[in-house]
Write a structure and sequence with these properties.
By secondary structure, the chain is an alpha+beta fold. It is about 40% helix and about 15% strand. Strands 2-3-1-5-4 form a 5-stranded antiparallel sheet. It is globular, with a radius of gyration of 33 Å. The N and C termini lie far apart (about 125 Å).
Length: about 230
């Protein structure tokens, strides 16, 4: 009996070893991308390969304005030619201390005008007369550079400023002595991106144009070459 049991155990072990090895698992294939995601990634890759056209004013500056300024002021190096480095839009919203929705509407308007999300500015110190505490949000600002800067200036000069009521030109006294120019806009509805029926109130903004010019004369000549309509 004992020998029979041993033989049965041996037969079972042999049967285990005699079993055919399990079939190799198929190599996991990478999951196929969803059609929408694959198409979007292909479009992004195609857009990256395509050369982006420069802004219209940027192309005009390289081909026409820079050579004209070089001939006018006698610059010896192309790096001496003044250029616009940035444009800053600043909108003060003091009423936001009473209602935060006013600030949200101002941010929405500036986003539409600039094409870029603005930064909320806060009070640096408390002013009891205006019921403002330190750190309260009181406005918003945005800094434009490169392509967006030139596109904004193009819309400002060709579309927005001619829509100002009784427009007779911008003042030539807005220079600060270091080549920078400041101007104010009383109504944001002069920009075509703003729909008059969807705004809560009329509000203005300050526009600062920073240039690399060393004198006000060079800065004014630069802006005049960009067709800024100065009064004088």
């Amino acid at each position: 009996m004992a020998d029979d049991k041993k033989d049965n155990k041996r037969d079972k072990k042999g049967a285990k070893h005699d079993k055919a090895p399990a079939a190799d698992k198929q190599a996991k294939q990478p999951k196929a991308e969803k059609p929408a995601k694959a198409a979007a990634s292909a479009d992004r890759a195609h857009d990256a390969d395509q050369p982006h056209q420069p802004a219209r004013l940027k192309d005009i500056y390289r081909k026409e304005i820079a050579p004209a300024l070089t001939a006018q002021f006698g610059y010896k190096s192309p790096m001496e030619v003044p250029r616009i480095s940035k444009v800053v839009l600043n909108m003060g919203v003091g009423e936001a201390t009473a209602d935060k929705k006013i600030l949200d509407n101002a941010v929405s308007d500036m986003t539409k005008i600039s094409g870029q999300k603005p930064v909320i500015t806060k009070a640096r110190k408390a002013i009891a007369g205006f019921k403002i505490r330190e750190g309260y949000p009181i406005g918003c600002m945005v800094t434009l550079r490169q392509e967006r800067m030139y596109e904004f200036l193009d819309r400002l000069v060709t579309v927005a400023l001619p829509r100002v009521r009784d427009f007779r030109g911008i003042s030539g006294r807005g220079f600060d002595g270091r080549g920078n120019y400041n101007m104010g806009v009383k109504e944001q509805i002069i920009f075509p991106e703003i729909e008059y029926d969807k705004i809560d109130t009329i509000r203005g903004m300050n526009i600062t144009i920073t240039t690399t010019a060393k004198t006000d004369a060079e800065a004014k000549a630069l802006l005049a070459a960009f067709k800024f309509p100065f009064r004088n």
